[in-house]
Design goal:
266 residues, four-stranded mixed β-sheet, two-stranded parallel ribbon, 11 helices, disordered C terminus
Length: 266
């Protein structure tokens, strides 16, 4: 349990917010204001109410506000309100709305445009699939060309062992809220989908990154599925076990290029 957090009664599903270890390197960039919002949610027994204390251009409301006949993304687009359940998933989604508001609005706009164009059917189509994948599981990486080429080739030893020193020149941002949710209870096969940050972007500035993403996310680009898989606990410095010889030899996690398409472990 994170220090200083008092869990709410077990009837409040958001009690799991007390399990977030903000000291982990993947959560550190989210700690402010995330830890304070988590404390508020535990006190108020409402993730939506707690998120509204930091809300900018959207309002967070109970999931029950979403009509059964309306798509989630369309509801947000039409009303500027985000249906929110009590739990880790929607908590991290709300933090992302705070940290990257332009990007979240862009994702919602593109989802709404696709819904208006093709309706809500049994399949989402390539653009909506890519938008959902980005929203739920994206890892934003700014990295040297040699590392990017190794990642594209699934040359894990080159990427994470031979060129390990080059990771000091890498900037990484976990964007996907489902990915952040999984990392509350980390396991080795958790895999994100890398979207490369252009080299001319000041990736250490959330505002600059948000500006760039809100224009770079275009339907034509997303339809090409511009992602590469990365088991995130393999990131140098993030997980003590990956210092051990042989950590990257697990081909069920660090899959060779010839073993198929991008996989998302759950």
């Amino acid at each position: 349990m994170a220090r200083g957090l008092t869990p709410a009664p077990s009837t409040f599903a958001g009690v799991v917010l007390a399990d977030i270890d903000w000291a982990q390197p993947w959560f550190a960039p989210w700690q402010h204001p995330g830890e304070h919002v988590a404390q508020d949610a535990l006190r108020l027994h409402s993730v939506a109410q707690a998120l509204n204390h930091i809300a900018r251009d959207v309002q967070f409301v109970a999931q029950s506000e979403l009509p059964a006949t309306q798509a989630y993304e369309d509801f947000i687009f039409q009303q500027g309100r985000v249906p929110t359940r009590d739990g880790l998933h929607d908590f991290f989604n709300g933090l992302c709305w705070h940290r990257f508001p332009q990007t979240k609005r862009r994702l919602n706009l593109l989802q709404a445009a696709e819904i208006a164009r093709q309706g809500v059917g049994a399949t989402r189509g390539p653009v909506r699939d890519a938008l959902t994948l980005f929203d739920e599981n994206a890892v934003l990486l700014q990295l040297p060309d040699a590392l990017w080429q190794a990642l594209q080739a699934r040359d894990w030893r080159s990427l994470l062992v031979d060129q390990r020193a080059q990771w000091q020149h890498v900037h990484i941002v976990l964007f996907g809220h489902a990915l952040l949710e999984k990392l509350v209870t980390p396991y080795v096969s958790i895999t994100g989908h890398v979207y490369r940050i252009a080299p001319n972007v000041d990736a250490r500035s959330d505002a600059a990154l948000d500006d760039w993403l809100s224009t770079d996310l275009q339907p034509e680009k997303l339809a090409t599925k511009p992602f590469e898989p990365l088991p995130v606990l393999g990131v140098p410095g993030w997980w003590s076990a990956n210092e051990a010889p042989g950590f990257y030899d697990n081909t069920q996690v660090f899959r060779p290029k010839n073993r198929g398409a991008i996989a998302s472990h759950s």
